[in-house]
Amino acid sequence: MTSVGPDAGRVQPDEVAAAVRFAAALKAAVGDAVEVRDGLLDELLVCILAEGHILIEDLPGVGKTTLARALARGVGLELSRIQCTADLLPADVVGANIYNRRDERFEFRPGPVFANVVLVDEINRASPKTQSGLLECMQERRVTVDLHTHELARPFVVLATQNPVEFEGTYPLPEAQVDRFMARVTLGYPSPAAEAEMLRGHESGDRTDAIRAVGGPGDLLDAQDAARRVHTSDALRRYVVDLLGATRSDPRAELGASPRSGLMLLRAAKARALLCGRDHALPDDVQALAPLVLGHRIVPAAEALETTGEAIVTDALAAVPAL
Question: Is residue 134 part of a domain?
């Protein structure tokens, strides 16, 4: 894998082509096993190549967990699952030091976050204390237990699912937790034809079990490295900053887009440019991804009852000229 640093250089044409081939093969493998709406897999691939975490929010039974499993199998990554419940503890997520009576010393027993893909199922059924245990994992790619720091695996991505907060036994995610997710996506119900095909395809078993990996962790790391080195201009960075400012100054927003969201938007734009076969990001990339990356981070004011974060982002895109 190519090293990344000040002298890493701009992404090369052969690296762009390799990333496009890898993403296309992964999309085909997952798409054969999971019925999802048009464009969803493209959004997920952008986030994964940009090293972002993904929050999948929808009703129970629409395939959130199946989609996460399919993505992990498609890249041949180690997958672990955390089933969130009200009595889940932070140590159940990150691990704990256990006393070994035979050796008379404490040993660290890693939790399920020590995997490439961590499926956090129904994250909003865990208590706020347990939810906060994921913050360091998602931002720093490491955990600290009893003053000792443990690095997580690379690549590392959290795919969290949640049900609507109106459902019984759920806790709203705090803003700091939501801000760690690059994107929040929804699946929705499949079309009647797609649902009928799903019923036919799953009669003989779970189709995700038949997915063959289209690459390995090294291929994904190479693609992520190439995405980091996609060129962005000063003008594009100013455009992102202006968009963030527009969301913060909107009177309908109690909380606008954070500086972290700007970093994630730029990273996502670079990943999208790579998947489009380009070595440079354009305002088009930012505009296509801004509602996806920024919308869930914006908290509408209490009096703006009919306003959503996505609507505020859409208005910002219309008001701020692309440079």
Answer: yes
Q: How far apart are CA 269 and CA 127, in angstroms?
A: 33
CA dihedral angle for residue 204, residue 70, residue 180, residue 7, rounded to 10 degrees: 180
Contact 273, 285 (CB under 8 A): yes
74-101 pLDDT, tens digit per residue, is 898 999 999 888 889 889 999 998 988 8
Query: Are 220 and 45 spatial neighbours (Cβ–Cβ below 8 Å)?
Result: no
| pLDDT tens for each residue of 57-77 | 877 666 777 888 888 888 989
Looking at the 3D structure of the chain, how many domains does it have?
1
Measuring CA to CA, how many Å separate 204 from each of 61, 200, 201, 209, 305?
19, 8, 7, 11, 47
Q: What is the model's pLDDT at position 167?
A: 58
Q: Would you say 53 and 134 are in contact if contact means Cβ atoms under 8 Å apart?
A: no
Q: Is 235 part of a structural domain of the chain?
A: no
Residue 44 domain-assigned?
no
Instruction: Tell me if 192 is assigned to some domain.
Output: yes
Instruction: Residue 94: give the domain boundaries.
Output: 52-198
CATH at 78: 3.40.50.300
3 state SS of 201: helix
